[in-house]
Amino acid sequence: MKLYNLKNYCEQINFLKAVKMGLGNNQGLFFPLNLPKIPKKKLQEIIEMDFLTRSVKILSILIGSEIKTSELKKYVKQAFSFPGPKIVPVTKNISCCELFHGPTLAFKDFGARFMAQIISHLNKKNNTTTILTATSGDTGAAVAHAFYKSKNVRVIILYPKGKISTLQEALFCTLGENITTIAIDGSFDECQALVKQAFNDNKLRQETGLNSANSINISRLLAQVCYFFEAYALTKQKKKLVIAVPCGNFGNLTAGLLAKSMGLPIQSFIAATNANDTVPRFLKTGIWNPYNCISTISNAMDISRPNNWPRVTELFSRKKWNLNKLGFGSVSDQITTQTLLDLQKIGYISEPHAAVAYQLLKNQIKKDEFGLFLGTAHPAKFKNIIDKVLNINIPLPKTLAEPSTLPILSHYMKPNFEKLKKFLKS
Ligand SMILES: *Cc1c(COP(=O)(O)O)cnc(C)c1O
């Protein structure tokens, strides 16, 4: 697989190098040079396969010969070793595609766990990797669990002290072993700024083998392509399929569009955001004008400068698709809350991120279409909001209940780069 840097077409590298580097020169994203399309007859065969067999097939079509199929099989099996997507009917013509049955109850498990397999493949030659990531919640947990006990990998996760929920904190700050967590006395932006500073320090990067594991990493996106195929296979609908995606950094949507580019018959997508509506405003007006980030109840989508958007526009232009055909919309907290109640009334307990997508899908779906909205996280992860809004006491799954009884192992640090640097070198 060859990929090029979106900011410098001449920088072209293979898949494994792209996973290792994360970003190219000038902070450019890597994008596939070839966009393989599966012939119709073959597509039918692939759709009929089981999830794991099909995922190996799709990833080998994308990645090519860089990783032996026998090895890829092993990696996919280890990465996706949890219940895959589930389609749950919500109304007559809309179902939720639940992607949250993995170890940290969010769709990020698919991408993070596949990336962990590729990193350990790269580390076979005894390199060591330091994964340094900032998190406002879900990414930290998915990455920590994906790399837990990986050989030659040290994981360091920064998070804003007191600004993530106690359930979220317990999920990744109680693991120990090769997972180190640091509560930063500051905001999420300050955590992210520290990570950026570390990546800009070439010497430090070399010495510690830094990698970030966030959704700019191409391995995460490729893994996510697999569940769109599974969603299609499980839906078994004769109607045209439209998928509403709750978007933050737009990695999930990019993966869905890649699946479509491979020939998966998805009629259209709806890019759903909360009040952080840079993309919906851009699609409406043609003007890219990010405002300051606003805190909402769908906090994993509180991003006003989405990292993966350049990949979305590149794909539309490469495929000669019309960007006007991309559905979009933004939903306020007030309407999201109302939507959660509406969903409860029709018998489906959801959470704020999926509710944003459902709300737009419900309003935009046409008669001849069948709709899926992506359930990106388990509602119990947002117990504090869900219990209050729906007046219920949502039970905690074991994955959340157990860690919340364990001691928090986090270090504590002021947002100071020299201190972090010293820590990374130690
Ligand atoms: C990360 C996340 C999103 C946003 O996904 P992107 O790929 O960044 O667009 C949406 N919902 C939940 C629950 C998340 O954790």
Walk me through this protein's architecture.
- The protein is α/β, with parallel strands linked by helices and 426 residues long.
- The protein has a domain of 202 residues: Rossmann fold (3-Layer(aba) Sandwich).
- The chain is built from 18 helices and 14 strands.
- The strands form three sheets. Strands 4-5-13-10-11-12 form a six-stranded mixed beta sheet, sandwiched between helices. Strands 9-6-7-8-14 form a five-stranded parallel beta sheet, with helices on both faces. Strands 2-1-3 form a three-stranded antiparallel beta sheet.
- Helix 7 links the parallel strand 7 and strand 8.
- Helix 5 packs parallel to helix 6 and helix 11 packs parallel to helix 13.
- It is globular.
- The mean pLDDT is 94.
- The site of pyridoxal-5'-phosphate has 16 residues, from helix 11.
Which features would summarize this protein structure in a list?
single chain, 426 residues, alpha/beta, Rossmann fold, six-stranded mixed sheet, globular, binds pyridoxal-5'-phosphate
